[in-house]
Amino acid sequence: MSETNPSSDPEARTPGVGEAASAVSAAPRLGLAARTAAWVLALILLALSAAVLAHLTIDRLQVGLESMATDELDPLMDSVRLVQQSEALISQSLSLSQAQSQDERRRLRVDQQDRLEWIQKITRQLASSGHTDPDLLARVQRAQMQLGDGVETLDDLVNQRLRLWANEGEFGRKTAELDERIAKVSSQHRLVGAELSVLMGYFSSDIRTRMRSRIDRLEVEVNRQRAGLWVLTGAAAVLLALLGGYLHHTVVLRVLRLQRGVSQRPVDRQALHVGGNDEITRLAETVVHYVDRIQENELRLHRSNLDLAYLAEHDPLTRLANRRHYDAASRRMLAALSSPLALAVLDVDHFKVVNDTHGHDFGDQALIHLAHSLGTALRERDVLARFGGEEFVVLMPVSGMDAAVDVCERMRINVATQPVPHGDLPPVPLNVSVGVALITGLPLLAEGDDAAEVIQQALRAADAALYRAKMMGRNQVCTAPEPISARMPFDQKDDT
Q: Which residues form the domain of 184?
């Protein structure tokens, strides 16, 4: 019974690493790294825009406050100082009206002149600011001039009164008239001062109104800028969320899909197709390529292992079982069969003459042909093995020796009637001699040395029968005289 090598199919050519590299280097579009960098750059630009906007807002607010301080606060402080100087001038005028001497009059007159100069200076500052109501400013200037005129008039009247006091002749006649005029001028002077205070109140109120208006405008601007900052912040948050989603979809999920596909056994090739046209796609293509290489190598290794396993138990020339296979098969049969087991030893008659006459190459072809002829005479359950050279062994489950002899005769006849083809030359006939031994008492439940001993005894008995066949003229089947009992103790078997 002949056997074939299971790994005889040709293998497809495996592309090299360089070919794979060129195959997966597709024309790149905008790569993953470039796209991620673009997203990050957009976020950075958005953050910078928000920072610049905030900086500009603060600068504009600062400029507005400084402008308000210059345009509004300074005039307001001038108006306060003007009111203070006016009130001091009125107070000094009251003291002037009560002066008792020329020295006191002159001293108060000097102080009043300083106050008038201050009032004039402040009034000029208000006029030059350009932010004062012209009509209100004109009224303030008129009131300031009236104060000056009132001071001059009051000083003149007080001077007259003091001269009258110095001239006792006219004192009595003129005193009452001068006191009346002084009281009248002082009252008018106070009225002008009060009017000036009211005007300064209007002036201050106007300034405060303008300040409130400018503050309101600044608040509107700040709120507008704040809204812009919120918009930019929201846009940055949305962009960041989109970036996270983009990275999750384009990187994380695809890498996880690739990792799951590679980690599965067998490799999930469908999961290795991650889509896209970027670095991850090319990585997946490279992984697919190397997975193919690995699978091809695994298949090649599997086939090599099958070859090695096959060659470990088969004859490389005839593809029949070798001695190792025969030993394992014989042990299995001894342990599993309940019927007798026949062991036949076959030897080619005059095979040395065939080798010497036709050459060893033809001798090998003859052995291959012989193995085929023997196999056609055997059953599926029979085991045909080559022990070496031109010697073969057959293990046959049979009902008895007669059945074993029938099988051996079929093998002998097949060999004798099927000469070996020899090209253009006449076929070369072959003959075999066969010795058969029978093993009974199965199954043999013992293992190891027991089984090996039984097989060796059967093999010696078959060899002895083969020797008798050779001596009796070859090309015949001879049997061992007694069966080998697997149940008999080994010492008894040796004694027999």
A: 18-312
Pairing between strand 420-422 and 383-388?
A: unpaired
Decide if 5 is inside a domain.
no
- Residues 294, 322: one domain? no
Q: Which of 312, 328, 360 is the last residue of a domain?
A: 312
- Structurally, the chain folds into a number of domains equal to 2
Start-to-end CA distance of the chain, whole Å, equals: 34
Residue 10 sits at φ, ψ, to 5 deg, of: -70, 150
Q: Are residues 324 and 244 in the same domain?
A: no
* Residues 153 and 89 placed together within one structural domain of the fold: yes
Distance CA 441, CA 443 (A): 6
Give, as one character, the DSSP assignment of residue 320.
Answer: -
pLDDT in tens, the chain (496 residues): 544 455 444 444 444 434 444 444 444 456 666 777 777 788 788 777 777 777 777 777 777 666 666 666 667 777 777 777 777 777 777 777 777 788 888 888 888 788 788 887 877 777 776 656 777 777 777 877 777 787 788 778 878 777 777 775 555 556 667 677 777 777 776 777 676 677 667 667 777 777 777 777 877 877 887 787 788 788 888 888 887 787 777 777 777 777 777 776 676 666 666 677 777 777 777 877 777 788 788 888 888 888 787 878 889 999 999 999 999 999 899 888 888 999 999 999 999 999 999 999 999 999 999 999 999 999 999 999 999 889 999 999 999 999 999 999 999 999 999 999 999 999 999 999 999 999 998 887 665 668 889 999 999 999 999 999 999 999 999 999 999 988 765 444 444 3
Task: Mark whether 231 and 373 lie in a shared domain.
Answer: no
Instruction: Report helix angle 17-24 to 279-312, nearest 10.
Output: 150
Q: Is residue 379 part of a domain?
A: yes
CA distances 393 to 114, 133, 241, 307, 470, Å, are 148, 135, 80, 23, 16
| 3-state DSSP assignment of residue 42 | helix
* Of the residues 312, 339, 364, the one at which a domain ends: 312
